[in-house]
């Protein structure tokens, strides 16, 4: 199936995405970023490309850019578990614990049988986020006594 905007076929885009993922896995974030930026321009309706860009930004501690990319991915596909888990991690690192916990919980809800490895990570992170919230509440409660 050709992309009507530029004549590129789905298999060609998939091949580029796989190449970009390999660069990401090797830690060559500059090459991976270049490929996924190109793919976003060629097919702006594909959430995976935004999720991949967000993951690259997260790996390079560019948290605002990562958050923006994950938000865009979730606008395109609200059930993108990878985008949810990674956005939750960004939010956690930014100190937005409640929203992070909500992202993790949504990701867990998408995989009730716990088949996706991301779900395990989400379950661990939601537990840590909730523990942090509870500790903060206990601390605030102790200060008022």
Automatic annotation (TrEMBL):
The lineage of its organism: Bacteria, Pseudomonadati, Myxococcota, Myxococcia, Myxococcales. Keywords: TPR repeat. The keyword Lipid biosynthesis does not apply. GO terms for biological process: negative regulation of DNA-templated transcription. Gene3D superfamilies: Tetratricopeptide repeat domain (1.25.40.10). InterPro entries: SRFR1-like, TPR-like_helical_dom_sf, TPR_rpt. This is Tetratricopeptide repeat-containing protein. PROSITE patterns: TPR, TPR_REGION. It comes from the Bacteria. It comes from Stigmatella aurantiaca. TPR repeats lie at residues 47-80, 81-114. Pfam families: TPR_16, TPR_6. The keyword Oxidoreductase does not apply. Coiled coil: none annotated.
């Amino acid at each position: 199936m050709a992309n009507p905007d530029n004549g590129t076929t789905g298999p060609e885009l998939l091949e580029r995405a796989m190449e970009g993922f390999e660069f990401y896995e090797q830690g060559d974030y500059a090459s991976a970023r270049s490929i996924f930026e190109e793919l976003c321009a060629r097919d702006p309706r594909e959430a995976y490309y935004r999720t991949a860009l967000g993951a690259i930004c997260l790996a390079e501690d560019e948290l605002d850019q990562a958050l923006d990319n994950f938000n865009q991915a979730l606008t395109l596909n609200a059930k993108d578990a990878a985008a949810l888990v990674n956005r939750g991690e960004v939010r956690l690192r930014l100190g937005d614990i409640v929203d992070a916990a909500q992202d993790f919980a949504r990701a867990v809800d998408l995989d009730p049988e716990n088949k996706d490895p991301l779900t395990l990570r989400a379950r661990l992170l939601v537990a840590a986020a909730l523990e942090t919230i509870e500790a903060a509440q206990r601390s605030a409660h102790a200060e008022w006594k």
